[in-house]
Amino acid sequence: MGNLSRTILCAAVACTKAGTIPKNRGKPNGWRYAEYLVNRGDGRWLLRVEARNGQDTLLCPSCAARQDRARASLALQAAEARVEAQAAAQAALEASQEAEKASAQAAQAARRAETAPEGYTSWAPEVIADGSGVWAGNALRFATRGEAEDNVRDLFMRWTLVRETRVVPSTDPVKYTYSDEGLKQV
Predict the structure, then answer these.
(1) pLDDT (tens digit, 9 = 90+) per residue, 63-115?
(2) Residue 58, exposed/middle/buried by CB under 10 A (0-12, 13-18, 19+)?
(3) Which residues contact 28 (CB under 8 A, 6 or more apart)?
(4) Region of residue 174 (phi > 0: left; psi between -120 and 50: alpha; otherwise: beta)
(5) Residue 78 half-sphere exposure, CB side, CA atoms within 13 Å?
(6) How far is Cα 174 from Cα 142, in angstroms, rounded to an integer?
(7) Alpha carbons 122 and 144: distance in angstroms, whole number
(8) How many CA atoms lie within 13 A of 157 on its CB side?
(9) What does the alpha-carbon distance between residue 113 and residue 125 come to, in Å, rounded to a whole number?
(10) In 113-144, which ranges are continuous DSSP H helix?
(11) Which end of the chain, N or C, is surrounded by fewer C-beta atoms within 10 Å?
């Protein structure tokens, strides 16, 4: 009848173990198909079963365990790389937000310290306080845009009918200063 079993060699390159399996019957106990990970290129990996000459390749139990350890190590390295990438992205986002905030604060500080344009001597606060849409001002004149904005913001908080506020350059001389202590005549 011939040989009722066949010998199979471990697929690992440096391994010389062999197993015997009955002819046409699967794989020997403890042996496993050789598997390997394939990078799909989109950050995900696929598990493939290796085949040679149309036949499934098998690993002996010790080589299968070694392959499991290697796969676990690769998975751990990939997870660590993802965590590091996420931390780097978060740090970059925070740095970008801090830079934007600093830039906005610098621009606001420069705008607040802005003196009147050439040909003008002061800043005048104005409001729209009714449905007419007409801007109305008073005799208050400030040296910087920031003082005028603070004053008109204070006015907006005290008056209930103010719809809009603005600060415009004026040719009138500076008459007041405005600080945390309030309005003071110059």
Answers:
(1) 777 777 877 788 888 888 899 999 999 999 999 999 999 998 888 788 777 78
(2) buried
(3) 8, 19, 20, 21, 58
(4) beta
(5) 12
(6) 5
(7) 7
(8) 6
(9) 15
(10) none
(11) N
* Res 115: pLDDT: 80
- Using only the alpha carbons of the chain, give its radius of gyration: 40
Q: How far apart are the first and last CA of the chain?
A: 120
Give yes or no for residue 1 having a pLDDT over 50: no
Q: Rounded to an integer, what distance in angstroms lies between the CA atom of residue 117 and that of residue 103?
A: 23
Under DSSP, the state recorded for 171 is S
- Name residue 171's amino acid: T
In the numeric block, the tokens 């391994």 are attached to 15
Residue with tokens 């202590």: 181
- How many Cα atoms within 13 Å fall on the side-chain side of residue 14? 4
Q: Which two tokens stand for residue 173?
A: 């001389």
SS3 percent helix, strand, coil of the chain, rounded to 5, is 35, 30, 35
Burial of 76 (0-12, 13-18, 19+ CB in 10 A): exposed
CB 176 within 8 A of CB 142: yes
